Amino acid sequence: MRTIMETGTRPHHVLHPGPRGRRRAALAMSAAIITGLMSFAVAPTATAGPVADSAMTGFAMPFAGAPAFEHLAPTQVTRPGQLNAALGQPTADRVAQQIGLTRADALSDKQSRELIAGGGVGGNRADATIIDACIRILTNTTGRPLYSEVDGHLIPSVLASYGLYVDANGRLQSPANADAPTRQVNSLIAPGGFVGNWLRNNGATRTLAALYRSAYTIEAAFGFAAQQMSGAAQLVTNTKGGVSTQVGMSLAPPLWIVNFALLYVVRPSLAAAMPAHWAPIPPEVAQAIHSSPTGHVPYALWASSFDWSRYSGDGLSRHRVLF
User: Fold this and answer.
1) Overall average pLDDT of the 276-280 stretch
2) Is residue 222 part of a domain?
3) Which of 81, 126, 167, 291 is most buried, judging by how many CB atoms fall within 10 Å of its CB?
4) In 3D, which of 174, 175, 96 has the Cα closest to residue 133?
5) What total number of domains does the chain contain?
6) Among residues 256, 226, 82, which one has the least CA distance to residue 163?
7) Separation CA 98–CA 92 (nearest Å)
8) What is the number of other CB atoms lying within 10 angstroms of the CB of residue 82?
């Protein structure tokens, strides 16, 4: 999911760079961001744990995020039972504490319901619909399927551990895809956007302040840098033991932590429903997504690739591919 906050406004220039120029500028900006962030990798009120070794987690910068928090993100699936399993509330509360959040920072039940339903002071049903869709996509774990129309049939899908989801029209994609609600929400969560204004207007300024004091802020910057260099596919490479695999952007540590923080302050139980582990995308599916100019492909063509029961052993070896 592309859940980073695009905090700036677009400057006005007489001349606008072409695609190559924009990409070079984005990469240069990303490099500058990372250079600055590495000297400030711990948010003020977050409790940093052991610094993760990116060589062990397999994610490179900027996809690894702040080293002090990388160890909090999902680990790779090692057995089928972990696939799409939810984090669980006790673990979610521990993660929240380590990134600088507590249950006291979350919205009240009434505030949470009103925000998601488009109620409260300044509520907006259209914006709330986007927020609700984001929550459903990010918590697409076991017992929380999404439903899509595939070949004229309503089909459930659960793909959170892959960092993918299937939209209502049966298109398989990364939550960071340009067409996804989880990307469209950026304008709503940006400073001065709908969410911040709603929180201020509905007695939740404390929640907003807690969010910005947490690891959310530092990880959002890493997430922005990561997404700027990931093209239409919005997939991330993980390399361990000389083996490279792909996973959706929403499972890269900084993006997962950003999403976690956002869901936790809306309602802690939502963060607890996020995936606890990430799984490599089947190589043929990753290749298809990379080859698609839009970054999405028909789920009907690739659904069988996600059936681990078709393969012997732990079902993991088939997902290994070199890129």
Assistant:
1) 96
2) yes
3) 167
4) 175
5) 1
6) 256
7) 10
8) 17
Q: Which of 181, 200, 169 is nearest to 131 (CA)?
A: 181
Domain with 112 in it: 46-306+314-319
Model confidence at 45, in pLDDT bands (50, 70, 90)? Answer: low
User: At residue 64, what is the residue type?
Assistant: A
**DSSP E strand stretches across 102-258:** 146-150, 153-157, 165-166, 171-173, 235-240, 243-248
Q: Cα angle at 160 between 157 and 166, to 5 degrees?
A: 40
Count of residues making up the chain: 323
Residue 81, in any domain of the structure: yes
Q: pTM (2 decimals)?
A: 0.81
Task: Tell me, yes or no, whether 23 lies in a domain.
Answer: no
Report the alpha-carbon distance of residue 268 to residue 320 in Å, rounded.
Answer: 34
Interval 151-198: pLDDT, tens: 788 999 999 999 999 999 999 999 999 889 998 888 888 888 899 999
In a domain, 33, yes or no: no
Q: Residues near 36 by Cβ (< 8 Å), separated by ≥ 6?
A: none
